[in-house]
């Protein structure tokens, strides 16, 4: 899904189904995903933001379908994902700071906090919220709801399932 203001690169025209959609308003991504879930129940869906890349164990030799198959065999209907910022090693060679072949992860600035039970000062058992990267470094410019770097972005759709609509930057 992308706004009409952006052109789809010519090398993707034959392999990507473009859906014209304005995602600039708060909650529009969640609204769009919820519409897809309602229209296509009982399939695995993955949603992400611009420039995010699905990296998972053995992704160099295994397909996404095989990873989903493993999760289905384990009777899981969702996969928790995390956003980690990557940078190119040489900004002169890669002036836009993006290189899949020479990507480096920021080794500091990622952390997790215990999720508190609503209305208490007690933490939920084995529940953590993850933060870090550029969203943490520029927190004065990023809303609190958008600072989390963890989300369930790969899941099996089902009737009645909906993503909560929260504001994002």
Q: Please, could you describe this protein's structure?
A:
- The two termini are 17 Å apart.
- This protein has a domain at 40-156.
- It is an alpha+beta fold and 169 residues long.
- It is built from 3 helices and 7 strands; from the N terminus they run H-E-H-E-E-E-E-E-H-E.
- It has a 3-stranded antiparallel beta sheet with strand order 1-7-2, with no helix packed on it.
- The longest helix is centred in the first third of the chain and has 12 residues, at 28-39.
Outline:
With 169 residues, this protein is α+β, with helices and mostly antiparallel strands. Helices cover 16% and strands 22% of the residues.
Please render the helix and strand layout as text:
Layout lengths: L27 H12 L4 E3 L17 H10 L4 E5 L3 E3 L14 E3 L4 E7 L6 E10 H5 L12 E7 L13
Antiparallel strand pairs: 1-7, 2-7, 3-4, 5-6
What attributes characterize this protein structure?
169 residues; two-stranded antiparallel sheet; alpha+beta; three-stranded antiparallel sheet
From the alpha-carbon coordinates, what is the Rg to the nearest angstrom? 18 Å
Q: Helical residue percent?
A: 10-25%
Unreliable segments of 5+ consecutive residues = none
Strand order of the largest sheet: 1-7-2
How many DSSP-defined strands? 7
**What is the H-and-E element order?**
HEHEEEEEHE
Distance between the termini: 17 Å
Indicate the proportion of strand residues.
15-25%
Mean pLDDT: 87
Strand count, sense and barrel status of the largest sheet are:
3 strands, antiparallel
Q: Quick one: overall form?
A: globular
Number of helices: 3
Class inferred from helices and paired strands: alpha+beta
